[in-house]
Amino acid sequence: MRHSRTRAGVALPDILLAASAGLLVYTAYSRIKERRSLPGHPDSAPGRTSRQSRYGDYAVSGRSVTINRPRSELYTFWRDFENLAQVMDNVDSVVPDGEASLWTIRGPGGASYRIRTEIVADRENEEIAWRSVDGSDIDTEGKVMFRDAPADRGTEVEAIVAYVPPAGAAGQLIAKLFQREPRVQGRREMKRFKMLMETGEVATARNRSSD
Amino acid sequence: MRALTYHGKHDVRVDSVPDPEIVNPRDAIIEITATAICGSDLHLYDGVIPGVMNGDILGHEFMGRVVETGRDSTLKKDQRVVVPFTISCGKCFHCMKQQYSACDNSNPAEKQDLTEPLYGEALSGLFGYSHLTGGYPGGQAEYVRVPFSDVGPIVIPDGPSDEEVLFLSDILPTGWMAAENCDIEEGDTVAVWGCGPVGLFAVQSALLMGAHQVIAIDHYPNRLDLARKLGAKVIDYRRTHVLEALREMTGGIGPDAVIDAVGMESHGMAPDNVVDTVKQKVGIGADRGHVLREAIMAVRKGGRISMPGVYGGFLDKFPTGAFMEKGLQWRTGQTHVQKYSHDLLRRIQEGDIDTTFLISHRLPLEEAPRGYENFHSRQDEWTKVVLTP
Ligand SMILES: NC(=O)c1ccc[n+]([C@@H]2O[C@H](COP(=O)([O-])OP(=O)(O)OC[C@H]3O[C@@H](n4cnc5c(N)ncnc54)[C@H](O)[C@@H]3O)[C@@H](O)[C@H]2O)c1
Ligand SMILES: [Zn+2]
Ligand SMILES: [Zn+2]
Whole-angstrom Cα distance, residue A185 to residue A171? Predict the structure, then answer.
């Protein structure tokens, strides 16, 4: 995450909303790893579950779900980023842009944000990692990993996202009020991903398509 | 269409609302032919379940005729079906284990935000209940949208009347699972608190499962009478010391298993219940745990507690000591309805189980508010209300 950016003139919550929006997944993974091996963090829990949730400039969150489908199927769905708009509420679209992908994310009041991501690691049926590149409205990294679950439980999917909250810790607090904090957003997205993969649809209580 | 909707504590009305449509591929639309009011609806009516919103359509015990099916539904138009109150996908880890009421995929992701901090995990979806369980429009209406219609609804062949099978939607399997959770062995005494529909079906089920005796506890003479007619011994807690009586009726051992079929709105003036009632009224998420405490005190050492009664928040003065020192086991949960549907339908068809004894009142849907009022305030005579749109 070398580039940094702030977009002047955009209200704080807007940026944040956008930030959390599509970011389902990211990783300041190497940083988390460092953390994990520091004295005072001797347990075997993932770094993102640490009581400390900031690493340098980055806010990190992540979520695991077990999905009762084979790894290859889940990897294949995810690898085509265009599919992800189906499980991400405020992602309007993801379209290929040369080697990169261009994400269009909906903010409040009709605001729209763009993130260009490139894939930085891709191991078939195991792992996909990406990060935003210059020209993005938000500085973010993400990573998703697929592992066989024990017995016949399917696949453990773990997604991690890191991003730079625009206004420091206060930004996350404000976003929380909007329930769009990445932790919440990430959980919703992973649960929807699970729903779609396991049941072929995303659960809704709407009584009519127009509701 | 017309539907019974929630407008605040003790205020339900029949309103005109838009008809439901197919939204997801596995959906079906059912035209309701019969629906009932449940003790769980009374918790909503009393405003003690969080996450109920004005305008919500209530009702989770219903059956009807299939009028429309989504692309991936396996139902056919005109089939007569009973619909389980638990919404289950049939594909997730929990559904594969037949823990249908723990389904991972039926509660919309955006409705799960509150239950994770409150309960540690998201709950599954239920019809006509709380937004914590999805906020799905219920079946006290002319039509209902049924998600995962290839998994939940059970098709009813010609033969049994609607009234004979309607309770497959909830209270019959709930009473059955409550008894199953008692692991009944030869010679066992099962004590059941509450002679409402759930308690009565638990009595019936425990006897069918071979309990030596079932002792039912309540304070309404008519409800106690229904339990007696099913073959239970009865205790009126207004008249009798429940703990002493249970010990004396079990040769000094205590009941082998106890069933709390009352839940979070226990009646009575026992001191702990009065304190709990105040806390519940103040709205601090407190449950009224008198029955549960009494059941834990009554059950024999090494015994089993089965708790179909619904709780929603927190409980003070939980007898942890008695629970641990007596080495008890405790099982509970919303019922895994789909697990029991076929077996119980067969028992109804073969005449082993009758459910119609329970129905005290039949009303048109338009009079549902009167049904709520009476099922709530005149429980002795109003044992079960069936509504027809
Ligand atoms: N687990 C499930 O899936 C499930 C399904 C349906 C209902 N329920 C729950 O089961 C419970 C009972 O439902 P119902 O429809 O039978 O309700 P109900 O309100 O008709 O019956 C409750 C009965 O408990 C009796 N009671 C109250 N206080 C008592 C006490 N201190 N000692 C003995 N009896 C007492 C009442 O007099 C009443 O007859 C409710 O909590 C309901 O929400 C659970
Ligand atoms: Zn019910
Ligand atoms: Zn499921």
Answer: 15
Partners of B105 on chain A (C-beta within 8 Å) are 194-195, 198-199, 203
CATH number of the structural domain spanning residue A129: 3.30.530.20
| Angle of the B221-230 helix axis to the B197-208 helix axis, nearest 10 | 20
Identify whether residues B327 and B350 lie together within a single domain: no
- Give residue-wise pLDDT tens across range B287-346: 888 999 999 999 999 999 999 999 888 888 899 999 999 999 999 999 999 999 999 999
Could you tell me whether strands B61-69 and B28-36 are parallel, antiparallel, or unpaired per DSSP bridges?
A: antiparallel
Check if the beta carbon of residue B308 is closer than 8 Å to that of residue B178.
yes
A31 plus A130 within the same structural domain: no
The parent domain of residue A53 ranges over 47-199
B106 CA to centre of own chain: 19
Helix (H, G, I), strand (E, B) or coil at B86: strand
- How many interchain CB pairs under 8 A, A with B? 85
pLDDT digits (tens, 9 = 90+) for A141-160: 999 999 999 998 999 999 99
The model's pTM is 0.90
* Residues A20, A21, A24: CA angle, nearest 5 degrees: 80
For residue A204, being part of any structural domain is answered with no
How far apart are the CA of B260 and the centre of ligand 1, in A?
8
Strands (E), chain A: 54-55, 58-67, 91-97, 100-106, 112-123, 127-132, 140-148, 155-163
Contact B22, A211 (CB under 8 A): no
The verdict on A68 and A17 lying in the same domain is no
| A190 belongs to a structural domain | yes
